[in-house]
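Support case: magnesium ion complex. Customer-provided input:
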Amino acid sequence: MTQWVYGFGGGSADGDASMKNLLGGKGANLAEMSSLGLPVPPGFTITTEVCTHYYANGETYPADLEAQVKTALDKVEAIVGKTFGDVNNPLLVSVRSGARASMPGMMDTVLNLGLNDQTVEGLARLSGDRRFAFDSYRRFITMYSNVVLGLSHDDFEEVLDAHKDRLGVSVDTDLKAEDWERVVEDYKAVVERELGHPFPQDPRDQMWGAVGAVFASWMNERAKFYRRMHDIPESWGTAVSVQSMVFGNMGETSATGVAFTRNPSTGEARLYGEFLINAQGEDVVAGIRTPQSLTRIGREEMGETAPSMEEAMPEVFGQFVEVVNKLESHYRDMQDIEFTVEQGRLWMLQTRNGKRTAKSALKVAVDLAAEGVITQEEAISRVEPSALDQLLHPTLDPEAVRTVIAAGLPASPGAATGKIVFDADEAERLAGLGEAVILVREETSPEDIHGMHAARGIVTARGGMTSHAAVVARGMGRACVSGAGEIHIDEAKGVFTARGRTFKAGEVITIDGSKGEVLDGAVAMIEPELTGDFQTLMAWADKVRRLKVRANAETPLDAKTARGFGAEGIGLCRTEHMFFDDTRIAAVREMILADDEAGRRTALAKIAPFQKSDFVELFEIMTGLPVTVRLLDPPLHEFIPHTDEDIDALAASSGIDADKLKRRAKELHETNPMLGHRGCRLGVAYPEIYEMQVRAVLEAALEVKKTSGQAPIPEIMHPLVALGLEMKYLRELTDRTAKAVFADAGDSVEYLVGTMIELPRAAIRAGDLAEYAQFFSFGTNDLTQTTFGISRDDSGRFLQAYLDKGIFETDPFVRLDQDGVGGLIEIAAERGRAVRPDVKLGICGEHGGDPSSIAFCEKAGLDYVSCSPYRVPIARLAAAQAALNVEREKDR
Ligand code: PEP
Ligand code: MG
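Agent response - structure generated as follows:
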């Protein structure tokens, strides 16, 4: 018989922390905490397998689930001494989602379940607090109606506002027991009016309704979006935990809060968090009341006057600190904890590895290794490579003039400048057009997540350091200022006001998420300095990685940035990118449009000097390191002048007749330039072009050898090769030119000649190429394009449909298609090595900076990856993690 339900509580549990796949993160950790003897309200978890079954069988449950749930519920009743649905002594429960990977706020939760017109009276008698009982009941009706019955919160807000107006009060705490009783009556009427049936009174119906809603929420839009963003497979499903309720809203000795064992923004090794006296969990996250700090130091630092938990409840706080320390050393990582104090008694509701910023992740990992809690290798694996991106971007220049328009909380560090947007859909739309936007909201909710992702930064007028905006922004690496109460948003008018000024949608602001400030206009930024924990972890990573990391760079600025980030050479210098500047492009256009070899040679003579001086500069920046220079690979259409104005300018600068240029431009027009006269086809048709380039590379190398005393090792790379004979021709051209250059100079340098592998034929016939090519560099941008037959330029139009339908799990131009394109890489590596065992293998397509693709390159045994300069540190860390994983697999 399959076990679908796992119980916990009363000092023991059916499951443990290793069972995340089955019980979800929350369920597994609740079980583990119970077994550790920590105070956990008893409950049970319905497994992720039930979710899978539910979707595979037309949204139905396994036949024996109901009986298993009943047995588990009986046990909970026995432990707490209350009965579900009992009029005098009712057990109330919460029903929560919990997937294998945490997806904060993405799925649904129902609290206070089990309340009805009778049990609410029992709760009132038991607690001796009628107001509390009816407040709980109205919260339950709202939540259940929203999550399970699909009604809008607004329907209930309206009713509550009407009551407040009638009573002449403004805050919920001013409502008395009899007021809440009347609110409850009206809420029930809303349900009956909207749905045509009364609010469900049978607690068992309520529970199954909530369980079904949680499973259904696995497929809601925001959960789907979150999964796509974080690569969580749909097949994992969610578990459902049903847990007996404890109440943080039973008076002044009750409270609820969230804590991190270390600071999730900075990593500082000190308890950090917030709590609210006389409140339920949702109040903390919703940001409706401003929470207080947990510790005295925290309160002092934030300049708060309300007492901290340490001061307000010293005894429970002492007990809490003990539990929290126990959890961190047990899980050997920073924990994110939810707790409730019910009438002076501490209850733990959740623990999980805390989400953190890159800065915090680095510090926590390095500190834990230094404390001897984890090894250096574990520390390397603890930091998500792509999260480093947050640290590699500019911060506000401390010297710049700052005009503060509002102050709030430093919810997620980093700086961002962009246009004001008030709506998540609009943020997504504008970002899609390439605009930088800052999303400004009263507060955010899970419905806003796509807009938060699209925005450079987020500002909220309400909410604390653990509000939805703060938590999600930190996880995404977006700068965020929360709780900027000076901002008053008028969405209808499309403006906000702050400090007496009005700002319209579309105006530019800057936010400083590290300070919690919103600033007027664009503010100057400075490049980040990477020191301390970053350098420590990178040094550890460099010790264990096998793959070398190079950069794709052709400008001196990019090359310097790359070297600063630890690049071990250049893996791709796209020579056509060196021609984009105005004077140069004229010479290149003249060359491309020339009628004959003589005309081309005239133009080439103009290009040669700057080609050579550019290479000199690159070689100097990369002294001692390899530099791969890829010969011209222009999709012709990018270089042909299109407008009459451009043609006339070219006629003037080249002295060639404008009509002749026009005619030639027409002749060169291609229907499909991506598959046209590009890559080495240009070198084969017009060898004088590649000869000029080879000469420039080698003359530059000779010059640097002479001036610096250290010869660079240029690697001359031919693009878009498909045939052995093509490669033979190109190798001979290169060597012949080199011989002439060395004879002229009376000196020589070492150099390599190689090819890109960008076409399926090149991969399959790699043995033929290896006869002449000393290295292969996988150009996976083109190789993806040519393997799928999907245009790099046009794929955007239909790819989304494939992603939405799950036919593509991720964009193959971003993440390597390991089975297809990867299969070709494996074939090419094997066949190339069979002919030339020391053939050097690298990758220089965009995938060279993508962590999962790097893991593939490690397994395929490539020698290096090459990526854009800002991704170099990411690639270094990803390469180290990949090497460690390969080691681990070998040990198994
Ligand atoms: C490639 O095709 O992967 C490549 C690196 O070359 P480019 O992007 O310049 O075509
Ligand atoms: Mg290419």
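The first strand starts at residue 5 and ends at 9.

Case will auto-close in a few days if no follow-up is received.
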